[in-house]
Amino acid sequence: MPYLGSEDMVRELRRALSNPNVQSDHLRYRNTILKVVRAMSQGVDVSGLFSEMVKACATVDVVQKKLVYVFLCSYASLNPELSLLVINTLRKDCQDPNPMVRSLALRNMTNLRLPSLVEYVEQPLTAGLRDRAACVRRVAVLGWAKLHKLQASSDIDAAVVNELYSLLRDPDPVVMVNCLRALEEILKEEGGVAINKPIAHHLLNRLKECDVWGQCEVLKILERYRPQSEDELFDILSLLDPSLLSPHPPVMAATLSLFLSLCSGLPAASLSALERVRGPLLAACGSASREMRFTALCHIQLLLRSLPGLMGAHYKRFFCGYAEPAYIKQRKMQLLVELVNDENVALVLDELKGYCTDVNTDTAQAAISAIGRIGRSYSDRCLEILTGLLGLKQEHITSAVVQTVRDLVWVCPQCSEAVCLALEGCEETVQDSQGRQALLWLLGVYGERVSSAPYVLEVFIDGLRSEVSPGVKMELLTATMRLFLCRPAETQDMLGRLLHYCIEEETDMCVRDQALFYYRLLHCGIEETRKVLQGRRSDPSLGVLIGRPAEPVNQWARSFNTLEPLKQSAAETESTSGGSPEPVTSVPRPNTDLSLSSLSPSPVDKPPNGVALCFLLLGALEKAEEEDYVCMEEHVHCPAPPRCSPQSLQAALQLVNVQTLAFTPPQTLPWRVYLYTHTRNTHRSTLILGELLYTGEERVKKQPRDDTALKGFLSILATVLHTLSSERA
User: Fold this and answer.
1) pLDDT for residue 198
2) How many CA atoms lie within 13 A of 79 on its CB side?
3) What whole-number distance in Å separates Cα of residue 118 and Cα of residue 121?
């Protein structure tokens, strides 16, 4: 047919459908109907042919019926009155000897989605539930769910619900799964399908008969069932055990989710299940589907929160391939950071170093950031790589390196000397606002060690009129003020010009307000200014305990096999670096053994003879009141500190949910360890910050209204220290 306008096309198609010669030739008639459906798929409005297409459905040709039903279901809502004409044909087809015709008629009868036709659909659907053909029963079961969706306000007959429950024992597994899905929709307001012991065991015994989609549906619904005894629980776990090793990742994930739900009170069984799915998860990471690979990587990252060493021996499986998309490469790099240890750190760093020159700038910057995170544990090796990358003189690489070393010296101040030597000449390459803010922060904090710092800041100040980023301007103000305090002769003139411009000419109110604040601060005197801008810095001898504590499986089990791990991963990959560094999560190190054998005394570590505990107790309420901040002091005697390593002390405290922030070397005086924990109840959340000292007395700052939380914490901590002290014997 030659190309015509839409109106001419519809007119020509109507003429062909009404032509007796075309109707008598089945092949020509089917081809004409096919042209109508093709025109509909191309966006042509062919709703005017509805009456002609209704007549065309009265045929024994199954292919023609399918084409006509596609048209009728698409335009039924526009022609509700004419749709009544097709009901008789559909009801007649429901009695056809051919089960394919019967199922086709039932499916399209419910797909018309017209409330006025509900009374004509109920009887064929009820008969379809008892049909001898499984394909008809499948359609009829889902038809009742569609009918309920069409009239959600009306209640479906209880006899139909009972019939659907009885079909859960249908010999066809697809009918069984469809019944579960239909009952979920129909009984949504009542909490979904009711799962009792006979139904649960019946579904578990027939799990292998279902396809992948059906197994996932059954496993998801079984999560709401709770075994009545421990013997029943282990019987169910035995039935689920083969599915943990399923070659289909969706089935494996659904099985593990059910396993974790059932074993919420058995942490050892949960950890054992996580170890068993190591193989299937690694296989999913090599899937041909990119989406499957990314999902598997995100869920592995979730599992490492409870088992940090789960994938330690297989770290090479997370090396990036050249043709992999950037989002998969970045996820693998995050996993490599979590799997690094003393044995593989050299290989991992060499691999990440190769990614730093990737053609994709996001991948290159992610690799540099990963090296920086590893640098919190292995600072010397990582600093050597990062300073070497500065020699490439590439804008995006230099910017990422400057931001990374800024965050690194925040956590590891002992690296500052090497960082200051590497900063020379970086200002010529860094062009983006984030990189310039990081460079300015470093020049402000460590400007007394960088000989060219005043000249670099002067270049920034001279180009201030062309600067568009308010963040760079605010960081420049802070850096110049800090440098003025340590090198006043070289900085005084440029600081005056900077403050004058920001106060008199700057249009951004945030920049202007900060400049006014610094101007008024200078009027208060140099010493007051120094107290504000040059507070106490981190003690270089204070080592950070690297590694987050292993989380209980229950904290993340509900989010497994959902979209939440993917959303969390997307939030983590977004760049949030600003002009000043912020505390970030430390790099996990090899898992610490929490058994009592790890608390054995260490001959190298010799802490002082006495220990003091200093705590700050903070309460968080919806509306803070003044008396929430009233502090008191108490003195409590504690046993001598245990002769064990700081890592062993950290492991022991984690057993009672007390986390360790930082520590000094055991030979250093004063010897101290910083701790924190929190308690929650209905009305408040209390944060306890503590410091272990060598003195032997305890100073406690607390709120008088939360004595219970503090006394409980002191009792637990005293028990831990007594236990560790007794291990010396």
Assistant:
1) 94
2) 20
3) 5
